[in-house]
Amino acid sequence: MRPIPPADAHSTTPMSDHDSYAAMLAAVQAFHDKHDFQSKGGEDLTYRVALMVEELGEISAVVTKGHDSEQLAEEVADLFILVLGTAISADFDLRDAFWQKMDRLMQRDSRMVNGRIRVSASFDEPS
C-alpha cells in the first residue's frame, strides 16, 4: 500500500492541497485502506468496471432529467473517485497515463459527425 501523507488541522482529507493529484490519490487510498478494499474484493477490476458503469448511469440520469450542476458534480466526483481507485487497484500511474494520452489526443484531427465535433482514433492512425 502507498504511504498516506498526514492530515492537516483544517481538512478531513490526507493532504491540505486539494488541487494536487497526490492529495486526491492519497484520499482515495485512505478510503480503500479504511474499508480494507484489497482483502474484501473492492479492488477486483471486474467489480470496479461494474461500479463505473453504475456511476455513468447516475450521471446520465442527472443530465437527462435536467438536474442542477451540483448534482452532476457529485455524480462525476463519484466516477472520478472510482477511476482513481482503479488506478490504485491495477497499480498504474494515472497521472502518467493521462499525459501520455493527452499527447496522443493533441496529435489527432477532428471531424464533424452529425453536427458535433468528434476526435477519434478511427479517423487517424491506430493509437
Compact summary:
This protein is mainly α. The protein contains four helices and two strands; from the N terminus they run H-H-H-H-E-E. A hairpin with a 2-residue loop joins strand 1 (111-113) and strand 2 (116-118).
Q: SSE order, as H and E?
A: HHHHEE
Spatial strand arrangement across the major sheet:
1-2
Major sheet characteristics: 2 strands, antiparallel
Low-confidence stretches: 1-11
User: What does the overall shape look like?
Assistant: globular
Report the helical percentage: 40-55%
Mean pLDDT: 88
Total strands: 2
**Beta-strand content:** under 5%
For this entry, give a set of tags:
single chain, two-stranded antiparallel sheet, 54% helix, disordered N terminus, Helix Hairpins, 127 residues, globular, 4 helices, mainly alpha
